[in-house]
């Protein structure tokens, strides 16, 4: 697999995006949520249980993600995803910071602020739309449909996790998946460059 996409998206830009998602989430909660505002943020299991479940489910999801990558590494959808995310600056600790930022910002916005208003299914549709640029969905073809369906399914799962276990659990699962995925992208990209 040849990776030719330049690294154009820095950590700062991604952290600003996360901060904007948090500001939007807080705005939505303050304006549209009924009192007590933000109750969805603190529902679910006790914080320590959410943290344990989030780390456990996150580890399982990360392992599943690695296995799925190994089984589908040569598929066009996988190559397209790797190429899309290879635009990120993944040097040093950036995969960790990017994964944590995305897990926190996206879950706060989609699961904490929007899901209580719109439900899991509509929020998952918005989640896919929010990733159109990141995944470089330029035309509705089979590859885009497969990727969009995978994103939608992941969002639905995260929605149910947030609903039943709590938002912290969803944040940790999301961050775990992203951190492992970004380290995988970095590893594949480096292997292609050195080959």
Tally the helices.
Answer: 6
Helical amount among residues, as a percent range? over 70%
Secondary-structure element sequence?
A: HHHHHH
- The separation of the N and C termini measures 10 Å
Task: Kindly name the structural category.
Answer: mainly alpha
Question: How would you sum up the global shape?
Answer: globular
Beta content: under 5%
- Biggest sheet descriptor: none
Mean pLDDT: 90
Radius of gyration: 17 Å
Low-confidence stretches: 1-5
Describe the fold and architecture.
The chain has one domain (42-194). It is 75% helix and 0% strand. The chain is built from 6 helices and no strands. The radius of gyration is 17 Å and the shape is globular.
What is the strand and helix layout of this fold?
Layout: H1 11-32, H2 47-72, H3 76-85, H4 94-130, H5 142-164, H6 167-194
Helix pairs in contact: 1-4, 2-6, 4-5, 4-6, 5-6
Summarize it.
The protein is 75% helix and 0% strand.
Salient structural properties:
single chain, 195 residues, mainly alpha, globular
């Amino acid at each position: 697999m040849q990776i030719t996409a330049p690294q154009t998206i820095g950590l700062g830009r991604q952290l600003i995006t996360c901060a904007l998602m948090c500001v939007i989430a807080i705005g939505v909660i303050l304006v549209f949520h009924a009192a007590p505002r933000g109750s969805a943020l603190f529902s679910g299991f006790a914080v320590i249980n959410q943290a344990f479940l989030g780390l456990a489910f996150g580890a399982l999801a990360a392992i599943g993600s690695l296995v799925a990558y190994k089984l589908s590494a040569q598929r066009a959808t996988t190559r397209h995803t790797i190429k899309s995310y290879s635009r990120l600056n993944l040097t040093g600790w950036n995969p960790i910071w990017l994964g944590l930022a995305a897990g926190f910002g996206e879950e706060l916005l989609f699961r904490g602020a929007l899901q209580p208003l719109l439900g899991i299914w509509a929020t998952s549709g918005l989640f896919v739309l929010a990733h159109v640029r990141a995944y470089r969905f330029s035309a509705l073809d089979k590859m885009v449909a497969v990727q969009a369906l995978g994103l939608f399914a992941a969002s639905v799962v995260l929605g149910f996790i947030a609903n039943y276990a709590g938002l912290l659990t969803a944040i940790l699962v999301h961050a775990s998946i992203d951190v492992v995925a970004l380290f995988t992208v970095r590893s594949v990209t480096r292997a292609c460059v050195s080959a």
